[in-house]
Design a protein that fits this description.
Shape: elongated
CATH class: Mainly Alpha
CATH superfamily: Winged helix-like DNA-binding domain superfamily/Winged helix DNA-binding domain
Structural class: mainly alpha
Radius of gyration: 18 Å
Strand content: 5-15%
Strand order of the largest sheet: 1-2
Helix content: 40-55%
Order of helices and strands: HHHEEHHH
Length: 147
């Protein structure tokens, strides 16, 4: 499983805003320069994050984008879902399943359990955690998985 490049860029942008004064207004140009992400991509992702109420947008000559909530209130799961859609590792572990095997599938429930564990793990990490990563982060327990 891998998040796509735009989602990765969106999280980099959110971390940049959170680490550089989340209340301060940030322009697409400034974010592009600070993150080295192309400005058209930054602009597109800023609009998407603003539509989902993760960012607020202020128009005008001194406008820009800022976080709509404190970084501690924004989970990585919310960012991923905003940029990619529901977190589901297989088709049947999402909200809708059109699989022909659904009625007699031995792996449907285990995949749903795994998807839920991944979603919960992403939900425990906030934007604030991404800004100030610990040198020795605690492992997130994934229910049912033994080392």
């Amino acid at each position: 499983m891998r998040i796509n490049k735009l989602t990765d860029y969106g999280i980099v942008i959110a971390v940049h805003i959170a680490s550089d004064g989340p209340e301060r207004l940030h322009t697409a140009r400034e974010i592009a320069a600070g993150t080295r992400i192309p400005q058209p991509t930054v602009t597109r992702l800023l609009k998407q994050l603003a539509r989902s109420s993760i960012l607020t947008s202020t128009r005008g000559a001194s406008g820009g984008y800022s976080l709509a909530q404190p970084p501690e209130a924004i989970s990585v799961a919310r960012l991923v879902e905003t940029l990619e859609g529901p977190i589901a590792l297989t088709e049947c572990s999402g909200t809708v399943c059109d699989c022909a095997l659904e009625g007699d599938c031995a792996t449907e429930v285990p995949w749903q359990t795994i998807s839920l564990a991944v979603r919960e793990a992403l939900d425990t990490v906030t934007l604030a955690d991404m800004v100030r990563p610990s040198l020795t982060p605690p492992l997130v327990p994934l229910g049912g998985i033994r080392a």
